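Consortium newsletter contribution from the modelling node. Members have asked for a concrete example of what our holo predictions look like. Here is one, prepared for the magnesium ion complex that several groups have been discussing at recent meetings.
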Amino acid sequence: MAVIGIDLGTTNSLATVWKDGKSVLIPNSFNEYLTPSAVGFDDDGELLIGKIAKERLISHPNKTAASFKCFMGTGKKIKIDGREFSAAELSSFILRQLKQDAETFLGETVEEAIISVPAYFNDNGRSAVKLAGELAGLKVERIVNEPSAAALAYRMSDDSSDTYLVFDFGGGTLDVSVVDIFDSVIEIIAVAGDNHLGGDDFNLAIAKFFCTQNGLDFEMLEPEQRAIILKQSEQCKISLSSNSRVGMMASIDGRDYSLVFDNNTLLKAAALIFDRIKAPIVKALNDAEMTVKDISDVILVGGSSRMPLVQKYLEALFKREIKCSVSPDTAVALGVGVVTGVKSRNADIKDVVLTDICPFTLGIDNYNDEDPYRPLFFPLIERNTTLPASVEHDFCTSVDKQKKITISIAQGEKYYFDSNLKLGEISVSVPPAPAGREGVTVRLTYDINGILQVDVTRIGTNKTKSKTIISNNTLSDEEIRKKLAELEKLKIHPRNNDEVKYLNARAQRLFEESKADTRALIRSRLQYFNSVVESQNLRKIREASVNFSKFLDIIDYTDNDPFYGIEEEDYD
Ligand code: ADP
Ligand code: MG
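And here is the predicted structure:
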């Protein structure tokens, strides 16, 4: 029984499988890798999926549907041939087709899939994807973010750690994500996008330009005529990605119209679209608190990224050459294929940790001074935190002679602990002492498969008691054991980290060796560095470590001018 990877796209969907040490694309019955995400009914009421349905979008608009992905999890009903469907139901038809194609290709049954979704999909959208899978007879234990998948495919060809901008320009949407690859952990730092900008807009721009040049009014044409011109426009656009000049033709009311396009004509026709590409890039970089200089490479994803004009535009914006090391329209699917390999614990790929986002807050109960019988909720892992996450906090006894500290864990967003969903509890004994004297460090570690690990360490003795809470009880003990072993690496609190310890020690030594002004400077930099360490944000800590280390180098190697070579931005 095989596990397949699926890129369930707005325009096209693809399936992959991990085979012979690599991610392999699965062909459909047309021997093509891209299956249009279109569904329809023929005149006998039989279901049509993919390429055939897409073809009929023009001739039978009431009997076909496409671009329904944007309604996943919204409750919207889509009408086809008088019948109503949810987006999940329509998606399940696509998934069913991909499953069948995979079974034909592999010669065995496929019962499980890993499916990718846009990073901004909330829990409803993700649940709808799982439901679509179930409806198609596929178990969907894991959902992967599209930009992470693309980054993973990219990483297979270039095994470096860095920060990337994933530019996913599809049929109807532009998704921009800043993704960090560090030490086999792939983390999404920020996402932004334009849900109404994609390849379809180029088609429309070309169609309108074609009409204007031929003395036609696009808006005044019949829907079928418009659809024909739009289809020709898309062909023209795609041809322009590999040819310098393309002749476009369309026959309207028995008359033939034509126009020759080159990329300059396209630029003229679609100038407004290019203007809109920049905004999501700027937003994603701002949210990530980064500039273009922090991005080591742009990963091109989505069919529209194949356009030479789009690539040129990005090259001008990023002031560098942008290579397509992975094919833009298969990158996400290939990445999901890699995840299936990771999931089946293939020996050829090891310990890649993909991050996801925690949809709810995880926290523990906290003593309430005003009402000791109604504890408050103390959030540890905040909603929307990137997963896997690991956060700790110290707590102490609240009454005199307390013999036991009991920590209760819950998920939710409510003020009082009992208003949230309780997940479990764990107790440790402490010697009786005045209130506040004894304490514990509580650490919560949560991974993408819904496994929550609670560690309670008594301060002073360093004895730890642990408990594992599984919210989604579908993993075997063996899998959990392996999963936890994988997570061990992440659980190390930055404060225990060798690098942090080393920098603290080095700063203190330099403090001892230095005089007044330099001392004050070292102290403030050390305090700032340790405040970043407190934030428990691994990426920020890495950055701060590099900067702090540079600063210490300067102090260490420049004895007369401590300010020499320190850049202004190093201070904040
Ligand atoms: P989605 O992620 O939305 O399902 P895709 O990544 O499959 O979409 O991209 C589909 C879009 O890419 C369509 O608008 C299609 O016209 C466009 N496209 C595909 N190939 C090319 C190409 N070679 N040149 C330009 N545009 C292309
Ligand atoms: Mg896509």
